[in-house]
Amino acid sequence: MNLTLKVWRQKDAQSDGGFVEYKIADVTNDMSFLEMLDILNEELVAKGSDAISFDHDCREGICGMCALMIDGQAHGKDKAATSCQLHMRRYQDGDTITIEPFRAKAFPVLKDLVVDRSAFDRIQAAGGFVSVATGNAQDANAILIPKQNAEKAMDAASCIGCGACVAACPNASAMLFVAAKVSQYALLPQGRPEREKRVLAMREAMDAEGFGHCTNEYECEASCPKGINVSNIARLNREFLRAAVLAE
Amino acid sequence: MNAAKTCCCQCSCRLFEFLESSIGKKVMIALAGFLLCGFLITHLAGNMFMFGGANAFNHYAEALESNPFLPLAEIGLAALFLLHIALTIRAKFANMAARPVAYEVYQGKGARTPGSSTMAATGALILAFIVIHVATLKFEVGGSKGPDLFAHVTGWFKNPLYAGFYILAVAGVGLHLSHGVQSAIQTLGVSHPRYTPMFRKLGLLFAVAISVGFASLPIYFGFFHHDMACCAAKGGAQ
After folding, report:
1. Between β-strands A18-24 and A73-74, what pairing exists: parallel, antiparallel or unpaired?
2. What is residue B7's predicted lDDT score, i.e. its pLDDT?
3. Closest partner residue to B116 among A79, A217, A231, by Cβ?
């Protein structure tokens, strides 16, 4: 199939960017979206042009690096999938595809489609860990954890920090990411001793990065490649309210 | 003494920090919103006396206006509205600043609802409506109330422009509530796999009930039963 791509090109963080249109021919159904971009890049390099920069790493839907806004949807049109898991069989001959970087003040564009998501690292570093010594691996049932809590914690921990929640949110809010990181510890006994300190610190770090407010529109959940549930946001709100009252 | 001062200072710092935080602001907006929902219920219940005729409505209005706590309640209500609006405007500006460069194409993945994507517009519409509503029906702009409030209100409802705007505004209230109620519940941290879907449906039902309830007044007294309104007004003046 033959496609037209409208791609955001930006030399560096300081420069202004703009859309550049490219024609790409002979795209097959079997190609992944990133492979299609690889082929376009090979053509661009062969012509002596600068290749389109985009983030990618595992290409298996695990790492969360491939952050692309494709036709106004974070990670493209598929649900619960990253950009690298999007395949060209979802498109038809003659389609025009608009590819933009994730847009948020807290995710500045570094080059073309690559954004700096280190804001997430700083939020995580503010409290997204357990600092008490948990010792060696215990006997399986030494610490009893209700099955549903273990499952909810595991679901929250499946967040890969790709930033699709921020990209998809009409307010560029990072609440789903922070909610997942707070929840994965709040649900487990090992995370409980620091629960107040953690949620207060992570909320503060989130606001300091300049993310927007959550207006509960749930585009984050719909766009999350790991299907993180918005019930985690309610838990974050609960944890924050609890900590605001109880923290010493 | 010093310890007490430090404690007091810490408490006010904590409160300030809470109110300044993104979640704290949302919690206050949600709480004010819930209290405003309570006002909507009582206001609608009072307005339903109009269907009982001029006497019933005028007696209700008299009883309400003779209550010595009414000015206090009105100040509290105005404060709630102002808090809800001021915090929302602050959050809106912060949200706009959080995405300085807009997307060329934005379509999302279908989670937004007509209510959620029009909250600012319906909020502005409701504010405009409140100004006109209070000006005309309380402060008598455009016509004196006189002793017969029923006749005054039905008189305004017979103006098709006024009635049309009233219906449009209460439809806006319904749209606002269709998102607002479930959003406030989520913001207050209430989430349960069994009850949350029920709360969402109840929120929608509440939104429909409020808008249909309020809209029934200008529709009925503005466009139907002109004679009855006239006779009832006479009855009220007796």
Report:
1. unpaired
2. 65
3. A217
The predicted pLDDT at position A97 comes to: 98
Nearest by CB to A238, which of B14, B182, B189? B189
Token reading at B191: 């989430």
Q: A95 vs chain B: nearest CA distance in angstroms?
A: 15
Nearest residue, CB atoms, B26 vs list A8, A168, A214: A214
Expressed in angstroms, the distance from the first to the final Cα of chain A is 63
Number of domains into which chain A is organized: 2
pLDDT tens digits for range A66-94: 999 999 999 999 999 999 999 999 999 99
The CATH number covering residue A164 comes to 1.10.1060.10
* pLDDT confidence band for B236 (50 / 70 / 90): very low
For residues A201 and A153, the answer to whether their CB atoms sit within 8 Å is no
How many CB pairs lie under 8 A apart between chains A and B? Answer: 137
Exposure b/e, A134-160, CB count within 10 A at least 16 = b: eeeeeeeeeeeeeeeeeebbebbbebb
**End of a domain among A70, A90, A110?**
A110
Q: Whole domain around residue A222: which residue ranges?
A: 117-246
| Tens of pLDDT, residues B82-126 | 999 999 999 999 999 999 999 999 999 999 999 999 999 999 999
Residue with tokens 């310890």: B3
**What's the token pair of residue B15?**
């409160």
Nearest to A30 by CA among A68, A61, A1: A1
pLDDT tens across B134-145, in order?
999 989 888 888
SS3 (DSSP) at A173: coil
The partner residues of A8 in beta bridges, in order of sequence, read: A19
Among chain A residues, the shortest Cα distance to B116 is held by A217
Q: Which residue has the tokens 């200072």?
A: B9
A127 with A101, same domain? no
Domain boundary among A55, A87, A110: A110
Q: In sequence order, what are the beta bridge partners of A248?
A: none
Asked if A121 contacts A60 with a C-beta cutoff of 8 angstroms, the reply is no
